[in-house]
Specification:
Strand content: under 5%
CATH topology of the largest domain: Arc Repressor Mutant, subunit A
CATH architecture of the largest domain: Orthogonal Bundle
Order of helices and strands: HHHH
Helix content: 55-70%
């Protein structure tokens, strides 16, 4: 890419329609890619992502697929629980070592 060229961005609908033309329309990837003005590799990638992720494919910028969002939430919860456990351990150590 040259300096003045910008990276093309495609909407979720565009990607889904392109994949649908190949899968349901029975057309070749090369034909659809040429008609749409995109690279074949890109269309193969979209097709693979659609097959793997199903309805969660192409979440868009800043969004995660549902399973990725769940994983992120669980990691955050795990981190919070470890912090709470460590605080309780320290408190127990402080109160159990009180001089009598």
């Amino acid at each position: 890419m040259t300096e003045k060229q910008t990276r093309r961005k495609f909407t979720k609908d565009f990607k889904e329609d392109a994949v649908r033309l190949v899968v349901e329309g029975g057309r070749k990837v090369s034909d659809v890619a040429r008609d749409l003005g995109i690279e074949e590799n890109m269309l193969h990638q979209w097709k693979r992502e659609q097959r793997v992720a199903g309805a969660g494919a192409f979440p868009g910028k800043g969004y995660l697929r549902p399973q990725d969002e769940e994983m992120r939430r669980l990691k955050r919860e795990n981190h919070d629980l470890r912090e709470e456990r460590d605080i309780l351990k320290k408190a127990l150590a402080i109160f159990s070592n009180k001089p009598r």
